[in-house]
Amino acid sequence: MTAFEDLMAYQRETSALNQIAGRLGWDQETVMPRGAAPQRAEEMAAIEAVLHARRSDPRVAEWLHEARAESEAGKAQLREIQRAYDRAVKVPADLATTIARVTSSAQGTWAQARADENVGAFLPVLEEVVSLKREEGAALAQGGDIYDALVEDYEPYTTGSQIATIFDQMRPRLVALRSAVLDRPEPQSLSGGFDELDQMRLSQKLAIAFGYDLNRGRIDKAVHPFSSGSGSDVRITTRTSKSDPFNCFYSTIHEVGHAAYEQGIDPAFALSPLGRGVSMGVHESQSRIYENQLGRSRAFTGWLYGQMVEVFGDFGIEDADAFYATVNRVHNGYIRTEADEVQYNLHIMLRFDLERALMEGDLQVSDLEAAWNERFLADFGYAVDKPSNGCLQDVHWSVGLFGYFPTYSLGNVYAGCLYEALRNAVPDLDLQLAQGDTSGATDWLRLHVQRHGGLYAPREVITRASGFEPGPEPLMNYLEQKFGEIYGL
User: Fold this and answer.
1) Of 66, 264, 415, 432, which has the fewest beta carbons less than 10 angstroms from its beta carbon?
2) Is the pTM of the predicted complex or chain greater than 0.85?
3) Which of 48, 80, 155, 255 is catalytic?
């Protein structure tokens, strides 16, 4: 075998082990008994120790030195393996193992603190997580910016300063649109109860409508919806609320966007560095365009309205037009995952600024709750009422995902670019969506984005698909046009 073949065989085993680690995480979030948490932390630490040893094995450097590739895919494989190796060797093995152990345990501590509305119970372990991630960031940065080094895990070739510039461009228009919309009469909201088993049945129908292959996936319930896995085993979770079926339906569509990306990658890339989504920003572009530009469109909500009447009977919304306004209602709320399109990115900007300050040492963990509440009041105009609606609402920091939050808004920016190109490429899109047929859109996204996996760098993926360099203008134009029409601005 050549050095390239040896390297790819080794990489395939590493990727398979990483999938096993991901399955342990899925199990922990869905069906693991609560009492198993301490043992699971040890299991996660053990497998991370094995993975870190493989990622930083000196043989990888030798193979990379000797390996040659002629094809575009082969060169991309070497590029991504080299990037991962360069990062792995900078992080001490005992630090990687400790982070895996502590974050696995911290997740359970966070969940209990959130349920108990007890920030104080979570802060000590969060302090430990922050300290460990700062240490990891410093090791990766080698004297550079710690936060930039952590962002690289989720959005390669992007810096915190670049993200801040994009957010600075978006913020004034978002704030102005939010102010204008909230000055107008609010559309009718849902009321009454919606059977949770019926919600799950309809959510499965929605998943299938958006192209989710249940032969290679499954739908479960979790406190915080997520997607897990790649290739031939891609699982999603959702959640239900008796009074709010939209939480279930749009969480499902969102996670299907992630899952469809993973299921749509070229099978030739399976269990290789190219066999997964290239970045979380590109991943979020898929989940957000599925959820919002497609799932919350006037055309698709007309179809969904009929489905809900069929399942739940008369639920108090008089027609499809009123339902469209209800689905897209802009309203005050605390929860990021339940935020409307106008306000969602403001939630992300809050988290981005706070976590960046935590990593740079400008904000102490002990001051996080006060900083969150002060910023939320300034941005949204009303006070946080309880910790589960404030700094305890998201799982991300408990599991060490610092640098992850901004990719949600980058995904929205990318989705705006893709949607502009999609509308031009599929002129009868609305007619299809009105029939509950998303295939014109999802096939286009699979062809132009999803099948490439990690073949191209994140911004290159979006540029190739949309035909222009990504920026916030298409997203902002879409939001202003859509909500201007709904609210008569």
Assistant:
1) 66
2) yes
3) 255
